[in-house]
Amino acid sequence: MRKSIALLTRGVIIGILAIFAAAAIYPVLFMLLSSFKTSVQYTNDPLSLPPGFSYIQNFVAMYNDFNLPGLLLNTVTYIALAAFVSLAVSIPASYALAKLRFPLRNLFFLFIIASMVIPAITFIIPDYVLMSNLNLVDTLWSVVLLWAATSVPGSVFLLTSLMRGLPDEILEATRVDGANYLQLMLRIIIPISTPGIITITIFNVTAWWNDLLIPLVFLQSDANKTLTVAVATIVGRFNTDYPLLLTGLLMASLPPILIYVFLQRYIRRGLVIGAIK
User: Fold this and answer.
1) CATH of 66-232, one of 2.40.50.1020, 3.40.50.300, 1.10.3720.10, 1.10.357.10
2) What is the pLDDT of residue 237?
3) 3-state class of 185 per DSSP?
4) Which residues, including other chains, have CB under 8 Å from residue 256's CB and lie 6 or more apart?
5) In the chain, which stretches have pLDDT less than 50?
6) Which of 58, 154, 216, 276 has its Cα between 20 and 30 A from that of 228?
7) DSSP alpha helix (H) spans, the chain
């Protein structure tokens, strides 16, 4: 009886997981199949299979008409710079909150946690005014600085939880040996915290790659746009060409999917940062 109940429970769980998996895979499969259709074929029957996989005009149009290499270069450049700035701020701040004793430390940490629950759109007008006063609108630095700033609270929160578990004996021994603050960071803190740093970077990179609001507002010229923004404008420029739109969405969604597929062990590790000491 117990074995039957266990098998039934397992079957129900597998069935539910299969439904969730199908719901996640279906949009990607739909975009892939639609990308091999013409606009007429898609209009006649959006859910049908493509006649073949030799029609690649949608991919050619994304490459040529939308300057896909330039869009990818812009996106990767912005993300790389934002990741560097974010980690350059988050790692020292997390170490200070985790291991140093100074007045109002807990209040600072509480303020950081509180800032995580405020929607980013709340700051969009003040941010635009600030970037306009600094003459950074329609430059890469507007996106880089805002991406880095919005990622710092979450990064500091997770890294602080991780660094609180670092052995104080190792840190004290390093100081006794005469290491300064920079050497302590480079030789001890960063190497030990590498798994957490990688995990946080993965979360930030995928969020930045999918971000539409900040690049759309602050990058006004076509030469500076990211891939996500360029794909979002396809509907406005080609109102009836949904296969082209779905092709762009497919190409924009592939990098985050590949990141999760190949780096999922770091993502799983990041879900328990600070839970075990």
Assistant:
1) 1.10.3720.10
2) 56
3) helix
4) 206, 209, 210
5) 276-277
6) 154
7) 2-34, 39-44, 57-64, 68-99, 105-115, 124-133, 140-163, 168-176, 181-184, 190-192, 194-210, 213-218, 227-232, 234-237, 242-262, 264-270
Euclidean distance between CA atoms 9 and 190, whole angstroms: 44
Of the candidates 181, 195, 211, the one whose C-alpha atom is nearest the C-alpha of residue 79 is: 211
pTM of the model: 0.84
Q: How many CB atoms lie within 10 A of CB 86?
A: 24
Residue 114 has which token pair? 């509180």
Q: Tokens at residue 27, please?
A: 């949009």
Query: Which DSSP state fits 188?
Result: I
Sign, Cα dihedral of 141, 142, 145, 148: negative
| DSSP 8-state code for residue 183 | H
Length of the chain: 277
How many CB atoms neighbour CB 262 within 10 A? 9
Give residue 113's pLDDT: 84
Q: Report which of 78, 50, 56, 51 is spatially closest to residue 251, judged by C-alpha positions.
A: 56
DSSP assignment letter at 186:
I
Q: What is the pLDDT of residue 199?
A: 87
Q: What is the 3-state secondary structure (H, E, C) of 89-140?
A: HHHHHHHHHHHCCCCCHHHHHHHHHHHCCCCHHHHHHHHHHHHHHCCCCCCH
Chain position carrying tokens 């840190």: 171
C-alpha to C-alpha distance for 157 and 97, rounded to whole angstroms: 9
Q: Looking at residue 236, what is its pLDDT? A: 57
Q: Which two tokens stand for residue 36?
A: 């091999």
For every residue of 34-51, DSSP letters joined together read: HTTS-HHHHHH-TTSPPS
Please report, as a single letter, which amino acid is at residue 72: L
